[in-house]
Amino acid sequence: MAKRSAPRRGESTARRAKKTWVKGERRDVRDDEAVPLHAVAMKPRSRDIVRHNEEDALEGMKGRVVASFARNWIVEHIREDREGAEFYECTPSRSIVSNNPSSSLLAVGDTVVFQPLEQDEPPADRYRQGVILAVEERTTKLAREAAGRVGSEQVIVSNVDQVVMIMAAADPFYNKRLLDRYLIEAELGRLEPVICINKIELMDPDFVAEDMAVYGEHLGVPVLLVSAKTGQGMDELAAVLADKTSVFSGPSGVGKSTLLNMLIGNEIQATGEFSKKYQTGVHTTTFTRLFRLPHGGYVADTPGIREFGIWNVDRANLSFYFHDFDEFRHDCRFPMCTHTHEPGCAVKEAVEEGAIDPQRYESYCNIFGSMNE
Ligand SMILES: Nc1nc2c(ncn2[C@@H]2O[C@H](COP(=O)(O)OP(=O)(O)OP(=O)(O)O)[C@@H](O)[C@H]2O)c(=O)[nH]1
Ligand SMILES: [Mg+2]
Ligand SMILES: [Zn+2]
Known about the structure:
Number of domains: 3
Bound molecules: guanosine-5'-triphosphate, magnesium ion, zinc ion
CATH class of the largest domain: Alpha Beta
Order of helices and strands: HEEEEEEEEHEHHEHEHHHEEHHH
Helix content: 10-25%
Strand order of the largest sheet: 10-9-8-11-13-12
Radius of gyration: 22 Å
Mean pLDDT: 81
Shape: globular
Structural class: alpha/beta
CATH topology of the largest domain: Rossmann fold
Low-confidence stretches: 1-57, 267-283
Largest sheet: 6 strands, mixed
Strand content: 15-25%
CATH architecture of the largest domain: 3-Layer(aba) Sandwich
């Protein structure tokens, strides 16, 4: 008798993967939720899809999800000619196929196959409608543990090159412990990390530079000190973003959207059509959205986050994400040393001698302590 789990002949990997999605389950939506509820609890609409090719339902148009808005996913059609953007308001098809098992069904940044619905010319304030048929495998992602769903990942944004972790020099004061969590997530999601401290005019820049030295000097993470208010460091930030796809992430109120508005500047009209239609408040971002930079590159603006549940790391491998421990861990007396309570721990010795930043070690212990045994 065939085993239940054995793939049936002709069943694609994608279709099998589809069955492992975690669906439905309602949960409380927090105000810092980066990914809307419908990303995981979808209720597809039944509509007639325009099938250009009846034989293959996946024959469709290729696009990139650039925003989530209300219950729709805004998909930009990827066109050969690249002349002018073309947007569609899409919902997932009931038979949507995903290559990202056990993860958010859709996320901003995803490459999708979609089909426009047959409809009359949409009203001026709406885009044409479409249905998403398939989601391609994500190459990179910024993810965290889904709120209220232990063991399930929530993708904030996918297919970006780097994560710019934005914090403020003051108002609100930056949180290095959150930075340490971001660094782990960046590595897991194969993203290059960049630290950007905004509102630098509110603090002594030398103090901040010194305080951040461990990241720049020991860990090789670029640290930018900027001010959207005075324009300080904006050229460096623009250079880091040029021709790349980046995500701005960090706590609420640190100036992510303000920085992005400055970078886009007067070009904002040119980049959107889109902006006019989906204008929310200037500040307090409520949904993730991808913007095209005037001089090349894209940046995803995201809602502020308060916490960052580490996903996919356990006590046994956590320390491997702390690269400032790398040169010491091999000298620990026990090969499976967790660097917490063991005697003869070279990492702890390095902390005592000042070779490892004590705050980084404290961060390690905090995250370690928050994980299940
Ligand atoms: N002093 C000072 N204030 C700034 C600077 N940049 C932004 N702000 C202010 O900080 C506040 C928050 O800015 P936002 O851009 O909305 O912050 P955000 O990170 O996008 O916040 P969320 O969308 O809630 O995540 C606004 O009142 C800005 O005017 C800066 O360089 N210096
Ligand atoms: Mg914002
Ligand atoms: Zn050790």
